[in-house]
Specification:
transmembrane, alpha/beta, 27 strands, ABC transporter domain-containing protein, 5-stranded mixed beta sheet, Rossmann fold, chloroplast
């Protein structure tokens, strides 16, 4: 049903043609059509979708198997408190099983219950003899020879603002009057030291287990060359050992920067070629005086064993602090003052079992890969429709951007939610602590926000791709690249409390790092909860300043909205297979948009070259007048009006600009089929691409049913049909399903839709034998072409474009297709391109021949043959000896004849129609047969093919 006629001036004051558009399909109808098509499409791809959904299950199953194997290993005796079978004391046979720290190995002891941990002296960290700092003579360090001849003294660098006060402090550090190590209480007044490497916990002091690496710090060790008896009790266990003596060496330094360099430069690094000079501790007394203690103690916190490969342990610093505090009291109160450090002890603990939650440990990396694997799926889907022009095909049949975005987004969201639900469900069922210990509601909100962000991020970056393979490769590089960067780079920044928080926030603006931060927090809470038997991430934990979940959820929520807006904007202004790009300021309407009026010039310059319109072609000039009348509404209404459209591609690599279309003007009324003829590269497909919105014209204007195509493309598409040069079909959908989808886009519903689909299938011979219900992937090339023609005509469109519709058809199918087109052109305008002259003569009411981007001639078949083929073609075959006599015969018939072909006695001539009569030709040939040997002859009128060849040659400057 058409709308009332109206006259509306265009951008230059011309009146646009009368409007006769179909009623536009509603938003809901378009969305319903696309939803039904997508559901059918996904149903046919159920195996692929099933693989996507089950992938999280396979990964969770793998983690479950690994976790089970790890639990089996950790349940062994090496990872729990030790037990021994003790024989009965009364001589009875057998033994009694006893468990506890006293029955455990060193590795087992850390798992035992210790209700009353033992106490032991606080040891000073002392370098091993072979690593103690040495130096040149006069440097203040012990001579290097001491490493071979005897134990070197232990060096303590020190500095301060007041040197004399600092030296007075150090003189009290190791001052002792009694060395009675048999009295445990007196050990608090002495300074025991050790070079052992500490454990991660101090339930057992390693110095007690390795007496050879234990020392007593005394000012003079000459009296203790054979060792010092050392005895005390470790709980109920008596300890009696002989330990070594070590002398202190205090070395003044002018400032603490020197001490820092020495501490850093001389420590063990695992490099055997690097000189090692270790210090026990360094002291900076700063502005200390008798009224205050200003103290900085330096030590190296990366203390390792000899191999340099062991993890860092605890560093003993309590004794270093006590030495300085006790010396300060002696300076203030006198040498008798004392501040003993009685002992150190661990906290009581229950018996424990080593637990390792493998899934939580590696979760951030692997789970990040699992979640992000949906991104390449989204990219592939979106870019596939653009690369194969399926999206523009849908737009040409009336699908708006709104329904497309809504249904596509809803599909991806449903897939993502199902994917994440299976992911969490599988993980919970097999008891992965990562899922079970963290609050499900927190996980739900986090995953829901992220999958929405991932969807809009996929829409955003899909606007930058036109090739599926490129988009897929980039998608997987993003997935695995951000996973590895998160695990091996970003995680270290998060764990380093000294790293700039603003830099971490900036990195979390990238969706990949935001996801990794959230998964990292979940894994940390689950790991600790599993080890300590507590709960994992809860809503209350989000208030913790060190918890990054709240921050990243806020970032992702904001980016969700921003990326959606940016993605929609880029989809409008970047040409990637979705139609004409819009002005970058299209959202402002007509406020700031530049006026692009119809540049209707007879000539124009591009990059220094001049392109002129040939005004000598009378038929072409008359067509321009028809366009003027259509614009002024002084002629019959036209469905398609092209007003001086041009397409110029810019020059590249030093080549001049390419003028694909040079000033095309056409006025095509309803009820007419216009044929576009021309050699390959003449500009036919480019012209149709501009008329259908695939390409924007460099200049000029195109009106479809009275609407400017650059401003009202969405409205125009509601009354347009398109049969492209290459079949744009979904191979998993049937022919009927294609027609149902496009019929719904043209507002067909219910029984009317089914009747129209059946009629369309019958018209192109795809109804019988159930052919229409077969998947198009099984169709032959001819069947696909017939389906494409049926799609272009479904829903009674007012304007139809057919680009070589009969290509690949057999003669019977071609004849049937011609009948369909002839019947369809009533009350609609059809533009058809073809290389078949027979097809053009049968179907087209008017023809236009294009050469080199220009319309060379226009008219119906008879007019063109009359105008460009005003001659007869006379052919004659004789013996070679009679060729001259045959030429004389033709010249007698027409002095103005021209020979156009000659080969082995066969000659072809063109005879002007004004020179001869058909009867005279027959009479002359019959008479000549009595004089020369005429083997064959023929006399024909000019064909359309002859016209085509002649126009093409003349336009190219050839004969």
């Amino acid at each position: 049903m058409s709308s009332p006629a109206r006259r509306e001036p265009d951008r230059e004051g011309h009146h646009r043609p009368e409007l006769h558009l179909l009623k536009a399909t509603s938003f809901g109808t378009q969305a319903n059509a696309l939803l039904r098509k997508n559901l059918t499409f996904q149903k046919r791809n159920k195996k692929t979708n099933g693989c996507i959904i089950t992938f999280p299950f396979l990964l969770c199953l793998l983690l479950f198997v690994l976790q089970t194997a790890i639990n089996t290993i950790l349940s062994g005796s090496a990872f729990k408190c030790g037990c021994k079978c003790i024989p009965y004391a009364n001589g009875t046979s057998g033994c009694e099983k006893k468990c506890g720290i006293e029955y455990s190995t060193q590795s087992q002891a850390q798992f035992c219950a210790i209700e009353s941990p033992p106490t032991w002296p606080a040891f000073l960290q002392v370098p091993a003899p072979q690593y103690r700092a040495v130096g040149e003579a006069g440097s203040g360090f012990p001579a290097a020879v001491c490493r071979n001849s005897g134990p070197c003294s232990v060096t303590f660098p020190f500095t301060g603002n007041n040197r004399s006060f600092a030296e007075g402090m150090t003189s009290y550090f190791f001052q002792v009057t009694n060395v009675n190590t048999s009295d445990p209480l007196l050990l608090s007044h002495l300074t025991p030291g050790t070079s052992t490497w500490t454990f991660l916990s101090n339930l057992v002091e390693p110095a007690i287990l390795y007496p050879d690496e234990t020392y007593l710090m005394l000012p003079n060790c000459s009296n203790f060359k054979n060792g010092i008896p050392f005895s005390f009790s470790l709980g109920s266990i008596p300890i009696e050992e002989d330990i070594n003596c070590a002398e202190p060496n205090f070395l003044w330094r002018d400032n603490y920067d020197i001490i820092n360099r020495e501490l850093y430069g001389g420590f063990r690094t695992g490099n055997p070629n690097r000189e090692i000079n270790e210090f026990s501790a360094a002291y900076d007394f700063g502005s200390s005086s008798t009224k205050k203690l200003d103290l900085t103690i330096g030590y190296n916190a990366t203390y390792k064993n000899d191999t340099g490969n062991s993890p860092p342990g605890l560093v003993r610093v309590s004794r270093s602090m006590n030495l300085a505090a006790r010396a300060f009291l002696k300076v203030i109160l006198g040498a008798d003052a004392d501040l003993p450090l009685w002992f150190v002890s661990e906290m009581p603990k229950d018996e424990s079992q080593l637990k390792l939650d493998f899934a939580s440990l590696i979760g951030p990396l692997f789970f990040m890969w699992v979640i992000q694997l949906l991104l390449p799926v989204i990219l592939t889907y979106l870019v596939y429709e653009k690369q194969n022009n399926l999206r523009i095909m849908m737009k040409m049949h009336g699908l708006g951007d709104g329904p497309y975005w809504l249904i596509s987004y809803a599909y991806f969201l449903a897939l993502s939610i199902l994917y994440m639900f299976c992911f969490v469900l599988f993980g919970s069922v097999i008891d992965l602590k990562f899922f079970r210990l963290n609050s499900y509601s927190v996980q739900l909100v986090f995953y829901l926000i992220y999958v929405n962000l991932q969807i809009v991020f996929g829409f955003l970056i899909s606007a930058l791709f036109t090739n599926v393979k490129t988009a897929t490769v980039v998608g997987y590089m993003y997935v695995f690249g951000f996973g590895l960067l998160g695990n091996f780079l970003f995680q270290f920044f998060v764990e380093d409390t000294s790293f700039n928080a603003g830099a971490i926030f900036a990195m979390e603006l990238l969706p990949g790092f935001a996801l990794y931060r959230g998964l990292y927090e979940f894994s940390q809470y689950a790991f600790r909860a599993n080890y300590m038997g507590s709960s994992g991430m809860q809503w209350s934990n989000l208030n913790d300043s060190e918890n990054g979940i709240r921050t990243v959820m806020g970032i992702m929520a904001v980016e969700w909205f921003l990326f959606l807006v940016i993605a929609y904007y880029l989809d409008k202004v970047i040409v990637t297979g979705s139609g004409l790009k819009k002005d970058p300021l299209f959202f402002l309407g007509g406020i700031l948009r530049k006026k692009k009026g119809s540049k209707r010039l007879l000539s124009f310059k591009v990059a220094g070259s001049q392109v002129s319109v040939d005004l000598q072609k009378q038929d072409v000039a008359e067509e321009r007048k028809s366009v003027e009348r259509a614009l002024e509404q002084s002629g019959p209404p036209c469905a398609i009006v092209c007003d001086e459209i041009r397409k110029v591609y810019p020059g590249r690599d030093g080549n001049p600009p390419k003028h694909a279309v040079k000033g095309l003007s056409l006025a095509i009324p309803r009820g007419q089929c216009f044929g576009m003829l021309g050699p390959n590269g003449a500009g036919k497909t480019t012209s149709i691409s501009m008329m259908t919105g695939l390409l924007a014209p460099t200049s000029g204007a195109i009106y479809i049913e009275g609407l400017d195509i650059q401003e009202n493309l969405d409205k125009i598409y509601s009354s347009m049909g398109m049969c492209p040069q290459h079949d744009l079909l979904w191979e998993t959908l049937t022919g009927r399903e294609h027609l149902l989808f496009y019929g719904r886009l043209k507002n067909l519903k219910g029984a009317g839709l089914n009747d129209a689909v059946d009629a369309s299938l019958k018209s192109v011979n795809l109804f019988n034998g159930g052919v229409g219900d077969k998947r198009t992937g099984a169709y032959s090339g001819g069947m696909k072409r017939r389906l494409s023609v049926a799609i272009s005509l479904i829903g009674d469109p007012r304007v139809v474009y057919m680009d070589e519709p009969s290509t690949g058809l057999d003669p019977a199918s071609r004849s049937n297709l011609w009948d369909v087109v002839k019947q369809a052109k009533q009350n609609r305008a059809i533009i058809l391109t073809t290389h078949s002259m027979e097809e053009a003569e049968i179907l087209c009411d008017r023809l236009g021949i294009f050469v080199n981007g220009e319309l060379q001639c226009i008219g119906n078949s008879k007019e063109l043959k009359s105008r460009y083929g005003g001659s007869y073609v006379f052919s004659i075959t004789t013996s070679q000896a009679d060729e001259e006599r045959a030429i004389n015969l033709v010249h007698q018939l027409s002095p103005n004849s021209k020979r156009v072909y000659s080969l082995s006695g066969t000659q072809k001539f063109e005879l002007p129609k004004s020179d001869v009569r058909i009867a005279d030709v027959f009479r002359a040939v019959e008479q000549a047969k009595t004089e020369i040997s005429i083997q064959a002859w023929g006399f024909a009128d000019t064909t359309l093919e002859d016209v085509f060849i002649k126009v093409a040659r003349e336009s190219n400057g050839t004969k």
